[in-house]
Amino acid sequence: MIQVSSLIGLVKNNNWYALVTRPRAEKKVAERISTKWHTFLPLQTKWSQWSDRKKKVQLPLIPSFIFVNTTERELFSIVKEDDGIVRVLRYLGKPAIVKEKEIEILKLLIANDTNVQLISPIDIDKGEAVEIIKGPFAGIHAIYIGHQGKYKVIVNLETTATYFQVEVSVNSIKRVSVSV
Known about the structure:
By secondary structure, the chain is α+β, with helices and mostly antiparallel strands. Helix content is 17%, strand content 41%. It has a 6-stranded antiparallel sheet, with helices on one face. Strands 1, 2, 5, 6 and 9 form a 5-stranded antiparallel sheet that branches. β12 (141-147) and β13 (150-157) form a beta hairpin. The chain is globular, with a radius of gyration of 17 Å. The N and C termini lie far apart (36 Å). Mean pLDDT is 82; it is low at 4-9 and 121-126.
């Protein structure tokens, strides 16, 4: 995980925003802008296979996304300052604010040595809403799916429209009612 700058002293009116970067430019962009702004780039360690060797590499959990904690006013100066940033993630024409809870979920996902993988959105209407009640992911609400005898849940970060699949034991989840 690259968390280049300290989160101590964050101003209360700052929010987390998602910046979309050029492909495979996340680390460099985070490194450059972290000298002036508080950044967060969730990374995970994976084994990469080449024809002659295997090597552990740090890859972004969400490709082409980095997170910055700043004011909306400063946000656009960040984008203008670094040509590795393509755009700010937007919602209803305004910069999308990433919830603090979602940043905490990302930190939890990368802090544990479990098999966390980014998956494409799938039809989850048939799945049950669950809450993980035991283990390192306790408190996360997710969608339950059963797959090949293993119990898996899908965790959704609404702001970035990303989904993660996490393996959990069946006794570590409970069904929750969904309020409409």
